[in-house]
Amino acid sequence: MLKRSFDALASLFGLILVCPVLIGVGLLIRREDGGAVFYRGVRVGRHGKLFRVFKFRTMLVNAERLGDCPHF
């Protein structure tokens, strides 16, 4: 129980420290082309279980539909 509490507090502290950087990255992405800041996708996990992933968008808006995204 003590380790879990420490982990939660350390994570919260780290998030508070990194929060201004994350906000800055989000503002830069929004300013660049006015599109969404986050990319929401579906990935396949262990045993074929699907899960959603949220990350900063690093490609063009609608790149998957435009064909600018490489397909592996």
Structure write-up:
The protein has one domain (2-66). It has a two-stranded antiparallel sheet. It has two helices and two strands. With 72 residues, it is of the alpha+beta class.
Low-confidence stretches: none
In total, the number of strands is 2
Return the average pLDDT rounded to an integer.
87
Rg from alpha-carbon coordinates: 17 Å
What pattern of helices and strands is seen along the backbone?
Answer: HEEH
Largest sheet strand order:
1-2
For the termini, the CA-CA separation is 43 Å
Number of DSSP helical runs: 2
Question: Shape, please?
Answer: flat
Return the structural class: alpha+beta
As for the number of domains, it is: 1
Helix fraction, binned, reads 40-55%
Main sheet, how many strands, which sense, barrel? 2 strands, antiparallel
What percentage of amino acids are in beta strands? 15-25%
